[in-house]
Amino acid sequence: MPDKTASRFDSEAATWDSNPTTVRSSALFFDAIKARFPQLARGAEKKKRALEIGCGTGLLSVHLAPLLDEYLCFDPSQGMIDVLESKIPSLPSGTHLKAFKELLTEPDSPSLGGKGVDYAFSHLTLHHIPDMQSSIDCLAATLNPGGFLIMSDFEHSPTSELFHPKHKHHDVERHGVVGDEIRGMMEKAGLKGVKVEHSFDLPKSVEGGSERDFAFLICMGRKQ
């Protein structure tokens, strides 16, 4: 994620959680994860470790962190990290969530403490990343054997550029992701059993005052 994008998110951090569309998309992704990984939903992964890139204010993180032993959050925006850290005291007792102002570009980052993770998550981040393959390679390399990479973003379509207003187009690298392209990148990163499928539709107001539904993909792969 370019520095200019991090600066834009710094300025939006204080009001980020007041956007119902942003809150709703994270909730829908959380539901999609629980439906496909019931072991997480029933609390059977409490001894497992996870990370999330592009965590923002933690709209997804605060739901997932209590289900795992340790949850590491990464975001290049200090404003977003500050808001997330303000939520930590309110999390359920025993939740271990740590936040880092970092993009996470290397799997041996000191922030990981020399250990791998069992889950790596990403939501609405891929469309901001210039080199998706490098990012997916990095995330795959952080996984312990048997670990899962689980990513979500809106799908590219003829109208997907409406997802962002025109004055924000300079902050995005692509207007949505292409399923076959992401699948190929995950397989190239060495992940097995890769699945890329529709997870939910998100209604969103667009410029001009109308509302459009945007399809979201969930992308999943496992490290052997």
Automatic annotation (TrEMBL):
InterPro entries for this protein: SAM-dependent_MTases_sf
Swiss-Prot/TrEMBL GO biological process terms: methylation
Keywords: Methyltransferase, Transferase
Pfam families named in the record: Methyltransf_23 (PF13489)
Organism superkingdom: Eukaryota
GO molecular function, one term: methyltransferase activity
Protein name as annotated: S-adenosyl-L-methionine-dependent methyltransferase
Organism: Pseudomicrostroma glucosiphilum
